[in-house]
Amino acid sequence: MSKQLPPEIIRSIVLYLKNDKKFLYSSLFVSRDWFRGMIDLLWRQPFHLLYTCNKKTISTSSQSKNSCHCSEKKRQFQATNLLTTLFSIKYNEELVKEGIFKTKGEKYMFNYLEFLNVLDLRDLYSAIQDWNQWNKMNKSINSPLLNFLNNKFTSLTFNYNIFKYFFINSPKLKLLSFDSEFILHKINNNNSCLPLNKNIVEDDYWVNYNILNDLLLIINNSETIQFFSNLTELVFTTEERKTRIFSSLSQICHNIQKLIVKVKFNVITNNYGTALTRETNNTLEEAKQLISLIKSQHNLVYFELYDTHEAGTSEILKSLKETQHDSLKTLILSDVFINNNNTILLYLKYLRNLQELRLNKCIYQQNNSPCYWEDLWLPNLKYIQLDYIEEHKEVSEELSSILLGCSPLANKNLLINKS
């Protein structure tokens, strides 16, 4: 008989391969020790795994309908089983009374909701849609359990009730996201299933609007306040306005260490006069409420910003300087509007614990302004990445030269790319 690996070795292997969907599922039934070593990881972010494509080699530029080989029917069936399992845990006693389950705790070895640590509203919404689609296609199947759960959530506020269910019944949730940029998939070196992209993009604005509106109602619900106070990571990259979301979160959410957000400034051809003023004001108001959220945090370590007006960028950086200068270690700005390099340099000198700086395709309004960097020294800076647009090549190279001279960085830790 072959010797079993010690549990601590199994755990190390599982943690190393925790984002490999195929490995996790294939190893689940190797032995009881393997099962114990990975069960919490499987249920840590089950919707993320559900909508992670099995094919890892898809490149963003080459994605097509034929690139993803995930079965839509299989995914709908898996979404139905996943939601049914998570709902049945909460309603176990009622299911026993209805005679659907014979004994309390039947079928489930764990309260899987206690493992749930990451919740993306985009993934959850897609699971709900897949569940609905499965029900429509399988009306002839008489499942007492499925009928019970369908009746439980059938109302005009169907999505809201399901969202609220997860917020209330998942005590270990730490990361909440509405990730239209698929940041979490990119970080984990995974790809989102193309059917997931298709399902939401077809009616993108109203879907996102309704999800954000449901979330706002939940944030302001007294039953869910404790959940938000326990969060340590927020990811909001949807383009729709999140002004009220940021405002409400700033009042109850104070332990965020990682914040990834988009404050979209729409630049449209012939966007001038009243339309431009309205768009600018809306963007700056959203940035203002984001600033309130930043200032309300006790220990923000990682901040990533997508898009936004140059005035909003400046004020957001100012808030980091005023309230997060001791804690912030990573700063990433992508596709944001910036007046000139002084906007960056002015606030960087206060972020003395900064270790990583990434500027991706920033749009400069004034390319020829002289730079001032007196007293700038970043003793802990370990890595800089500048991805520049061709028309801003000169100003980007100037900034990289200044940062190299104001930090202990070696050239090998400086990456400059043309986007």
From TrEMBL:
This is F-box domain-containing protein. It comes from Rhizophagus clarus.
